[in-house]
Design a protein that fits this description.
Blueprint lengths: L4 H20 L3 H12 L4 H6 L9 H38 L18 H15 L3 E2 L5 E3 H4 L24 E3 L4 H10 L7 E10 L11 E11 L4 H16 L5 E8 L2 E10 L16 E10 L1 H6 L8 E7 L1 H9 L12 H4 L8
Parallel strand pairs: 1-4
Antiparallel strand pairs: 2-3, 4-5, 5-9, 6-7, 7-8, 8-9
Helix pairs in contact: 1-2, 1-4, 2-4, 5-10
Length: 353
């Protein structure tokens, strides 16, 4: 009888037992248990190989070949079954995690530019169409440009109306956008043509927050410097502005006022767009609503910008887009613009990005 006859029979019996167990496995865990049972470190095949050390040199290769045949047969069937079970597990996972594409999607929220931004852009578009350029400047400004070159020297009483936030004695948060006009007049070359500009942006004053005032707000100031600029040019420009923003039937009126940087100076009123000038609560029964201040540029302002006031003249005006928006859209409290209340801001969805 062969020296390895018993081991050959053992391996045949293991083959007859192992292959059906592989096929009977219903999941990867059970399949791996079959592998450990037969091929693990302490598995049944390992038990057969323990006699290898006691065999003759002729019998060892024979037993080794028989064990390799078993491993090959086992591995072939095992790998095929494993692939089958992995595919089944994947399909089960996909089925359990399936997305019902027939459900309606969630519509993303589409933002919109803030109502003040929309108002400023509307005003900018109007003046661009009239040949003006948009010029912006620093919000942290020098006293020289913010006050001195606007004919507001040190200790001028009009400074009290523009009490600001000072960083030091010469540097402050600008109280109006007029400093941009001063900087632009200094840099402009009048040999290339007249200066027509507006300067939009944020400004800062130490106002107490209430329904009509805020420590931070927006301003747009306009400036035209050329030969023979008159109050008639100013009135015609502002009439176009008022009719564009509030309606073609609107009228304006100019009332004498005082600003250090213009002479003469005027307050500009627009006929009430709520009552048509008849008088109502919006216009305090007067039929008019104040919207901005304006005037003819003071000769001193021109001279400080190195412009010959005997040859050139100018007109200037300043308005608050916040106030324009309040009037145009009947907003009763300026603080609504800055409180980020979506119930308020969602009312103004024009001008979407």
């Amino acid at each position: 009888m062969s020296e390895i006859h018993a081991q050959r029979e053992q391996l045949q019996e293991l083959t007859q037992a192992a292959l059906p167990e592989i096929e009977a496995a219903t999941n990867l865990k059970d399949l791996d248990a079959v592998r450990v049972k037969y091929m693990g470190r302490s598995g049944l095949v390992t038990e057969v190989s323990k006699v290898m050390k006691d065999l003759s040199n002729e019998a060892r290769p024979q037993l080794g070949q028989l064990m390799n045949d078993f491993r090959n047969s086992f591995t072939q069937v095992f790998d095929a079954k494993k692939e089958e079970l992995e595919e089944a597990a994947l399909q089960e996972q996909l089925a359990s995690e399936a997305i019902d594409v027939t459900l309606p999607g969630r519509k993303p929220t589409i933002g919109a530019r803030h109502i003040i931004t929309q108002t400023m852009e509307e005003i900018e578009d109007l003046f661009i169409g009239m040949g003006y350029q948009i010029i912006e400047g620093p919000e942290v400004e020098l006293d020289l440009y913010n006050f001195e070159m606007m004919n507001l020297p040190q200790n001028h009483p009009a400074r009290d109306m523009q009490d600001s936030f000072y960083i030091d004695s010469e540097v402050l948060l600008r109280t109006h956008t007029s400093p941009v006009q001063a900087r632009t007049m200094l840099a402009h070359n009048f040999e290339e043509g007249p200066l027509k500009m507006i300067s939009p942006g944020k400004v800062f004053r130490r106002d107490n927050d209430d329904a009509t005032h805020s420590h931070q707000f927006h301003q747009i100031e306009g400036l035209v410097v050329d030969k023979k600029i008159t109050l008639a040019d100013l009135k015609g420009t502002l009439l176009v502005f008022a009719q564009q923003l509030f309606g073609e039937d609107q009228e304006i009126r100019l009332r004498p006022s005082y600003f250090p940087f213009t002479e003469p100076s005027v307050e500009v009123d627009v006929s009430c767009f709520n009552c048509g000038g008849d008088g109502c609560s919006v216009c305090s029964r007067t039929g008019w609503i104040e919207i901005l201040g304006a005037g003819i540029v003071h000769p001193k302002v021109l001279e400080m910008a190195n412009i010959d006031a005997t040859k050139y003249s100018g007109m200037a005006f300043g308005l608050g887009p916040d106030r324009v928006a309040m009037l145009k859209y009947a907003v009763e409290d300026i603080r609504h613009f800055y409180q980020n209340d979506l119930r308020f801001t969602r009312q103004f969805q024009g001008g979407q990005n």
